[in-house]
Amino acid sequence: MSKKLHPYVVFLPAEHKNKMLSAIFGSRAAVDILRFSLKRGVSEKIYQRELVKKLDYSNKTIIQNLKTLTELGILNEIMEKNDREGRIVWLKVYDLTDIGKWFALLLAEETELPEDEKAQILENLFRNYVKWVKDLSERLNVEKELLKRIFDEEMGY
Questions:
Q1: What's the rounded Cα separation, in Å, for the pair 28 and 91?
Q2: What SS3 class is residue 148?
Q3: Tens of pLDDT, residues 64-95
Q4: What is the dihedral of CA 71, 75, 76, 79, to 10 degrees?
């Protein structure tokens, strides 16, 4: 039986790996916040009040999950100045960090993503992977020339 597989790669900070995984996948609300960000676009702003309106959770639950996701570096919290009917209002706005985008993309179906976003993801993934391989090869004393030769072979150069 042949199954179509999608390679999922997430680079996690070693010191927070378990905490991050349990905070996201141990909470249905956190997963739904990431799904919400996917629907909006992984580079779009997420407004706290919009999450409260659209998701079926209490304000307290959403705020608690936003705080945890921010502390773990999955979301950035920004205060945005807004002029409403001559009154200045400050809104809490969030956006996904690079690692937050990777977690959100774990939940995405490939067909949900536009081609330009897929290309950007591939470039970002490749850059991060090359940095990781470079650092690991230096620690293991693997020659960069060997890695370059393997890369050239696989790319057909």
A1: 24
A2: helix
A3: 999 999 998 999 999 998 888 889 988 889 99
A4: -100
